[in-house]
Amino acid sequence: MPEDSLVPEKTTLKERFLDFYRDFGVARLIIFGFLLFLLASALFLKLPMEQILSSVLTRFGMNGILVLAMIPSIQSGTGPNFALPLGITCGLVATTLSIELDMAGFSGLFFSIGVAAVLGAITGFFYGMLLNRVKGQEMTVGTYFGFSIVSLMCIFWFLAPYKSPEMIWPYGGSGLRVTIALHDRLGKVLDNFLSFDILGVTVPTGLLLIFALFCLALWVFSKTKSGIALSTVGSNPRFAESCGLDVNRYRIIGSSISHALGAVGIVVYAQSFGFIQLYMAPLFMAFFAVASILIGGASLKRATVTHAIIGTFLFQSILVVSMPVANVVVADNIADVIRIIISNGIILYALTRKEIGGDVS
Amino acid sequence: MTSDSRDQSKKLTLQETEAKTYKERIWKYYLRKNIVPLFFIVLCVFGGYYSGLSLPFLINEIITRMARNSFLVISLIIPILAGMGLNFGIVLGAMAGQFGYIATANFQMAGFSGFAVTTLISIPLSILFGWLTGKLFNQAKGKEMITGIILGFFANGIYQLICLYFMGNFIPIRVPTMLLSTGVGLRNTLDIKSMHYALDNLWKIRIKIPGMIFPIVIPVFTLLAVVVLCVAIHFLIKTKLGQEFRAVGQNRHIAEVAGIKVDKIRVIAIIFSTVLAGIGQVIFLQNLGNINTYGSHVQVGTFAVAAILIGGASVSRATIGQALLGTLLFHTLFIVSPLAGKNLIGDAMIGEYFRVFVTYGVIGLALALHAWQARQKRR
Fold first, then answer.
1. Fewest 10 Å CB contacts: which of A233, A237, A284, B185?
2. Tens digit of pLDDT for each residue in A296-330?
3. What is the ipTM, given to two decimal places?
4. pTM value?
5. Is residue A2 part of a domain?
């Protein structure tokens, strides 16, 4: 534990400000400043703010659950879930299954979410058992485990005996398409549910509602007995063991919930995006989710629902606003480069903070 | 008396059985210790058989790949000695090498002199990058590997920013064909045909095999560079600096107490690794003859790490032999797996996906196995 957290009462305003500054961190300050700068330049360039705000809201809801998936994993002491592609592929399998079974609309969506959650929980269970054997190196192992699963699933997408003409290549050729359109299936089902316009800003009510639902569920879970046990196991395994808690069991539970959320998250993401992307597409998704929650103020050992909400909002705002601004000011592609720099920069920042736990044992 | 002798005989049998179990245990220990390279030797032989490639062709390919990749793999050894795990940060060294090529291509240099200048330019850049990486790793002690992975991605973002938006804008480029049609940003492929085989072609030995069309070609100087490096590392370990690396690797705190400046030694280890990786990338690219500007460096860390792990190295132990064996096995697998996949399952794409899976899977598996073994040892 860093010493400054043990300092009791903050007396002067200056001390309080310094403490806030230390908590918030230089990297977050830079990112926040960058967002303000982007917003100011967007206003200055007279870009359509209503459109920008609508897409911020949509992308916020779209990515929210994927970011929430980080919370149980961080809380149970296994660090950010770099193996998220594992859960994501479960969600993709569920969605393709719903198309294969010719489902559409809400029935397709709920079927996908249900199957995704179950598959995700099962794989999360087995992944948790692996994690218990590699204590101390969860992040490194997870990263490469995620990568290898994505490439293994490429073979699956290529060989899987799907028949639906919407998913296979039209003129022979084997395997599923790289991108599958969901327009007639579960595309935009949630986005359009009860959505309304206010001052030209479109609010995707259904999408935000389901995100709120999952936030609430996770928050309620963290207040239950097993939720508290989970975070105890994460913050101090020795203490948890001496309290009679089965550390390994709670780590498996954390991994299970995390992967289930990841699987559900990609279904919600896909319905809002309107497409599902197979093959190598999920490869780097974990990093953006990790970056989001870290921007929100989480650390490698501590994360709350609030961190996820703030982080997703900030990160997605930067992405959405930077694109049109960069288009007008410099070149088209620079937004993508900025995204890479910001997301990996914040992860590096979090990794270099002094904390307990390690990689090389 | 009788009871005594009975005791003795009992003791003897006990000793005998102990010796037996000890032998068995030793055998099992060696099997478990070398399980990773053994598994891959089997996989390589199996894949080689089903790939249907002729042996001379395979040998030629292996020699080429050994010559161009060994340097990069060996660059991982020193940080492992210094207890910093697998240095995924060698991606930055590879970038330094590529910056070197961009500079020499810009001044339209050619042949061996161009190659030499590229190497010379890459070294100070690598030292700078290595110094920064080392400083960063000192901030993230115990989490060097994941930090290195993320650092690679982060540096790639910066690299793209420089190559796509600064080159031709702030950094003048003389040769217009290097730039995109807009005049800003480098093209996807950078042609360095003028330096193609600059090192390999200095002296090539061709061995004719009766009955085969293609001779086996050995690029002597490239292999010589690898040998020199191996010998240099072998002696470096025996110097004072080398012993300090190992002391830091074994226990940071004891090394600190013994008067070694741990942080400084760690930074030096990373600088060594980055410089070697930079030179390694220069050698690698002179063999290829063109640079995939935004792709050549990305996989360097992954491939090198996969190779050294296949050779039986672990996060905390690595030898030159393991690095060389690993390079051999990994690249044999690289050559044979697509064809073997095609012949076994019937599609070229499957082999391609399988190859990617093997690369990532090997690292994941080896890291997991190491973590598992380390935990068992602690018990």
1. A284
2. 888 888 888 888 888 898 888 888 888 888 777 77
3. 0.82
4. 0.85
5. no
